[in-house]
Amino acid sequence: MDRRGFLVASGGAWMTAAMAVDADDVRETDTMLRVSGVEIPCRLSRPRGIVSAAVLLLPGSLFSDVDGNYPAFGMFPHAYADIARQLSGHGVVVLRMAKIGPGTGSHVVDAALATAHADFRMRIEVAAAGLASLKEASPRGPTIVAGHSEGALVASLLATSAAAASIDGIVSLSGPASPILDILRGQVLASMRGTSSPDMRTFDASVAAIRTGHRLPDAARADPATTMLASMPGASIDYLRSVDRYEPVAELARVKQRVLIVQGGRDHSVPSDHADRLAAGRAGSPTRIATFPTLNHFYKASAVGLSPMQSMALTRESDPTVASTIAAWIRGDEA
What we know:
This protein is α/β, with parallel strands linked by helices. The chain has two domains: 5-179 and 248-331, Alpha/Beta hydrolase fold, catalytic domain (Rossmann fold, 3-Layer(aba) Sandwich); 182-240, no CATH class. Helices cover 33% and strands 21% of the residues. The protein is built from twelve helices and eleven strands. Strands 1, 2, 3, 4, 5, 6, 7, 8, 9, 10 and 11 form an eleven-stranded mixed beta sheet that branches. A hairpin with a 3-residue loop joins strand 2 (13-22) and strand 3. The longest helix has 16 residues, at 122-137.
């Protein structure tokens, strides 16, 4: 396995064209994909010059709009817009997709069909629809699927699905190496840093209940470690359970295509050791790691000492070195 690292500062689908947005170097076109009763906004970034490759950019968890903003949570990092436009500056066509949910521009048009989206596996069908749309828009050159955070798991699953033959490589952008409920546990522990002996018994009991389909313990509402879980509606808990079934390391290990793992060193959501664990699971398969020591979960320069919320709230442009590194990897350039 080539693990040399970069260290650098089911209802079917259809597409309808909407408006076009012009920029100096990139032309952007908005589309809507309808997948199993839900219309999902997408945005295609196309370079004005020669096209060298195509990238499908899949969103992570939470409710993100097509640019990678989270209106429902008051966070506007616009990382997906930054990465897409930066990649287009390197001759890459990029299709980015919103994540279904409030404030994202998605719309339920058939409530009965839309219930399918309550299960994580539906994200693979949504991604497959996006891939088909991208291939129609850019049929030549290598096609890469880049998934951010939870979207990295979607990318792995898509790469081993019936769509595998259409995919030439996978980029894991801040992808987790642990199931989602284990990730949440780590985040809760990090938020309690400084506490001499964090009591995680209620949290662990709550996770066990979620995984087995039982109701959360009564103590969950009063325990600061589980307040968030206890406040979630049943549908959200069911979705968490459906995501948690997957082991990201095992799923990425099954991917036959070449893989680039991108990781920020100041990522509070997915700590940097996850990249090493993902790569270790790829034994014998073509894999590279690109590490950006000063960047956060959205690839923004993040000062030492910022809290997780302060880091997530940064709105400066995502570091263009990430996109240039991805573009170089797509071309096959040596690090």
